[in-house]
Amino acid sequence: MSGSKPDILWSPHHPDLYVICDSELGLYRIGPVGGTETKPGTLSLSKETAATLLAINSDTPYMKCVAWYPKHEPECLLAVGQANGRVVLTSLGQNHNSTCKELVGKEFVPKHARQCNTLAWNPVDSNLLAAGLDKHRADFSVLIWDISSKFAPETSVAAEKIRLSFVDLDSSSVVTKPLYELGQNDACLSLCWLLRDPKLLLAGMHRNLAIFDLRNTSQKMFVNTKAIQGVTVDPHFHDRVASFFEGQVAIWDLRKFEKPVLTLTEQPKPLIKVAWCPTRTGLLATLTRDSNIIRLYDMQHTPTPIGDETEPTIIERSVQPCESQIGSFAWHPSSQNRMVVVSASNRVMTDFTVFERVSLAWSSTTSLTWACGRHLYDCVEDSTGGTEGAAETDIATKMRERAQSRYGHDTVQVWRNHLLAGGTDPQLKSLWFDLFYMKQCAEDQELKLQGNKQSVVYSGIKNIIKTSSGTTESRRCWSGSDRQADVPRFYSEERCLALRLCGWISRGPDINVETFLRSLEHEREWERAAAIALFNLDIRRAIQILNKGAMAENGDLNLNVVAMALSGYTDEKSSLWREMCSSLRLQLKNPYLCVMFAFLTSEAGAYDGVLYESSVAVRDRVAFACMFLGDAQLPRYIDKLTNDMKEAGNLEGILLTGLTKDGVDLMESYVDRTADVQTASFCMLKGSPGEVLKDPRVQCWIENYRNLLDAWRFWHKRAEFDILRGKMDPSSKPLAQVFVSCNFCGKSISYSCSAIPHQGRGFSQYGVSGSPTKSKVTSCPGCRKPLPRCALCLMNMGTPVSGCSGTGKSDEKVDLTRENKLAQFKNWFTWCHNCRHGGHAGHMLSWFRDHTECPVSACTCKCMQLDTTGNLVPADSS
Amino acid sequence: MFVARSIAADHKDLIHDVSYDFHGRRMATCSSDQSVKVWDKSENGEWLCTASWKTHSGSVWRVTWAHPEFGQVLASCSFDRTAAVWEEIVGESNDKQRGLSHWIKRTTLVDSRTSVTDVKFAPKHMGLMLATCSADGVVRIYEAPDVMNLSQWSLQHEISCKLSCSCISWNPSSSRAHPPMLAVGSDDSNTTYGGKVQIYEYNENTRKYSKAETLMTVTDAVHDISFAPNLGRSFHVLAIATKDVRIFKLVPLRKESTTTGPTKFDVQIMAQFDHHNSQVWRVSWNVTSTLLASSGDDGCVRLWKANYMDNWKCAGILKGDGSPLTGLSGQPTAMSTVVGSSLQTSQNALNGTSAGRYFFPPLDPPRAGTRYGHLLPPSSLIEHCDAEPVVQPQQPLPHRSPSRVLLSLPEAEEQ
């Protein structure tokens, strides 16, 4: 340590005190950042902690090394090694009690002046202070001083010398006689007392590591090595020592002192500090010169040596506590993995904790668990929070909630599914209304034509328009106005169907939007209603709607102004009204008001202001296009819109694509974007089984959704989904799972299962409930041999269980309560698939309530414990 | 808002991995204390350790569950150069009485000559398959041909990656359009060359795994890698923990039917975050791959979420030691919550658990004028749709008035 390079020492007993030493000693207290008031002189060490400078001691110039007195009292007593080899005791404490006063200022002077390299207090016998000095050919380099030694007895011998060399010195506090002198004609670069025996001192000498025993100073144990700097004992493993040389750290086991047990990967720059973490086993921190990272070696994984083969694992990490180059660091003596780092240049300090590496995992039910060090933390999303908007809820949570509310299962009032989904997503709303209108139209068409028109309805407006023929063009008057409107309107059967799918009209062939307008008024959608009235060339109705809207409770009075502006409509091309409306309309915030004026001010056939107003719902724009675009323009517009929707994955576009290949493409980009396979699955179930459901992408969504339900243990929901799917796509039904054959003839014992193989009621056929048509159910229908017996009641399978109601009465099924359903389950014949013994379910259950092994003699099968998945309960049962 | 609570793990050394089973009701942890612990969630949501046993003669790096249709099966890998497969046995021991289940070793996979750094079961549609990777750069793929016999595993493939491997991830896609694929990450610390993530794909014709892609832009050591659950998406998403969090999107390019080579991908980087300020240790996806959790050397767990525009944002920060987060700039709510939570923490500390409450910083609302912004009409404009059937006179639907809509919902639960 040179004078300019700072070092840092934690107080051995005060967890909040440390000393920075460079040219002077500075004592700091570390504490939490004081809320609002920031005291002057407080240095921020991290986001949470700050340090206050308590004391500065610049009494001792030429400091080379410092060591903190290891005992509680006197506190803040430091030994300072100087460039001339002297060791001075000094203090930073305020309370100077008698012992302290006595000690402070004491000096220990070697015979020959040379640099003091290192100091080490004996951890047990704290009077002993070892100092390591540079080489002097006539002197020892390791001097062990006794700080309690009185100068008095020495005066006879040494005082004379002292007087000769340091005349002005206060001789009363100078000690010149060390207790022990070791390592003659050698240099000592580092020292540490061994923790396993406080009489042993480990010293890094010039070319070797030496262990001196104070009980027998003539002998030493040593090993030749270059790694002699910074010797330090692992506080958790007293035989383990680290030392370094240049960029390489050597780890020694004092029991096998011949060679290092391992050397760590060499660093390009020389090391300046190596320190064991006091709070964790086997964690060594190293620092190289001119570096801003601290390298950590985690050696706790070293397995106990079994043979020579085992090499220890070391997890190497580097941490970067601060941006600037690090001068030194010190582990906090008690706080877990915490250190304070001081920068090399300007004494900037950083409080830093080395975090354990956290490993983590999500569960399928959106809870997150992580392991930090030896601790586990479980983190569950708290749905009661409610502060987040619905938009922020993760789709996994949304899908779970929607599955719980039977989203997608309303096959009659299809539109209601969007309410089941929460009713907050406009795209879902649009989607389910599209599907609802498609279903309605398809049902009507079926009634009318009995033909195969369904595919047309479900193929989307894009395809419907393509087949359009016989379009008639008409010019209609403005209703309620005598003026001739110069607006051509188009009509065909297909366009009419498209309008229906858009929801504007309910049933053809008349285009009557009045019911729709009234419903919009009811929903207080004034602007939209007015726009639609206007598009139907009923300007008076539009004004009426706007007036109504202005007068309604909390109505927007500005609507009256808009109505006023509307009433001034003139079709003169160069009128002021037209000019002003076309420029001012862009300032209207409501898109529907905006498109109204766009419509009124645009030339016939050039309605881009309406058609490309993206804030207007797709269905309204499409309906508008169907009314006002000619056969040439319409398909082009629809195609363009369809492609936009497909690219964006906007579910409103399902109106255009229908449930076709195009629709699957659109849904694919929706799924890519949102991962909402639930909506995709339910939506595509409505498509035609042949084309859409067979699409591998659709199959994939369905499989993924079922898998999600399984993972959430929503097994009932999964089963319900499968039932729904089976209705739409009969080929998806699985085959019977179990086939029970007679022990004697090998034929199936079920009566009706063979006749109706997919009825899925197989189990009750083996039992006794139902099947009133069968005369004898206790024997095999093939060979008439008796069926197996219940292991407990010894009745043959098929015999009614006594005391059970509801056997053989078919009308019982009508008012089956939950209790009765479960009671009937008792009659089911069941068996263990492992030992293949069985009986009535009720009997078996009551047996296993008290027993673990099978009721059949000499069978040791633990039937009930075999299947652990069966122990899981579905999460969606109530 | 997320609530964290601590579980008394009782491992004697660092925990290296946490793994959930398919249903999220069981959890396995492994540690440097050479043991694996299995945890079961009780009815009231508490985690109970139901098994703990010594698995290896070295640090256990990773533990992973097989799909439950193969039984209760775990695999672990260790510094002791082996991977092991464990199966829970019930009914054959009396441990049940003590609330402990019994796990027995079905096989030890001893092919590696160095530390086995990761082990992962393949997606279930591939059968019972297991991939391991080791520090000497070899990925091994094992298969149990008979799923009833877990003691027989055959080494099917050996892929040499040339770089020390630290982590692997199977592509979970079950789509037939996607051949089996796995990504391997390397913790080689030499940053002068890239390609620390390699992607291998199974080729039906050659019946071999061949390299499909190398992410050359990843030059720093990779600590963890994770494919997102696919959920029927047309592309794959890969999260990488290196010196930052990275999310890659792999879009398979349409392959001509004649070519037999591996699929070509359009590799796009979707997000890159250096918020951890240092090495990122782990990444993990939630079940729908809409939330990513990452942990780093800053001691924090961070959550990431994409909005509709594929903009990934930080959705939450949790301190790794479960303590409340303080002093976060730009989060005025964080400070106020800390007061309440520290109180709560101290109370719960008496009961042996600690809890902290965290608020997530608000996500930026979708900006107007972005790609999807113009396609989403303001919700107020679409509200009308359900009104339409309400007043349709032709429809004999008397119960459709909006006020009763919610009342006439089908009963949510009948089971």
What features would you describe in this structure?
The complex is a heterodimer of chains A (878) and B (415). Chain A has 878 residues and is an alpha+beta fold. Among the domains of chain A are: 236-342; 469-630, no CATH class; 825-866, no CATH class. Helices cover 29% and strands 22% of the residues of chain A. In chain A, strands 1-2-3-5-4 form a five-stranded antiparallel beta sheet, with no helix packed on it. In chain A, strands 6-7-8-9-13 form a five-stranded mixed beta sheet. Chain A is elongated. Chain B has a domain at 13-90 and 100-160: YVTN repeat-like/Quinoprotein amine dehydrogenase (Methylamine Dehydrogenase, Chain H), CATH 2.130.10. Chain B is built from three helices and 26 strands. Chain B has helices spanning 332-350, 387-390, 402-405, and strands at 2-7, 15-20, 26-31, 35-41, 47-54, 60-65, 73-78, 83-89, 102-109, 116-121, 129-134, 138-143, 154-160, 165-170, 181-186, 197-203, 208-215, 224-227, 236-241, 245-252, 265-273, 280-285, 291-296, 300-306, 312-319, 355-358. In chain B, the strands form seven sheets. Chain B has a four-stranded antiparallel beta sheet with strand order 2-3-4-5, with no helix packed on it. Chain B has a four-stranded antiparallel beta sheet with strand order 6-7-8-9, with no helix packed on it. In chain B, strands 10-11-12-13 form a four-stranded antiparallel beta sheet, with no helix packed on it. The longest helix of chain B is centred in the C-terminal third of the chain and has 19 residues, at 332-350. Chain B is globular and about 55 Å long. Residues 92-98 and 326-415 of chain B have low confidence and may be disordered. At the A-B interface, strand 26, strand 30, strand 31, strand 32 and helix 3 of A face strand 1, strand 2, strand 3, strand 22 and strand 23 of B. Strand 32 (375-381) of chain A pairs antiparallel with strand 1 of chain B, so a sheet runs across the interface.
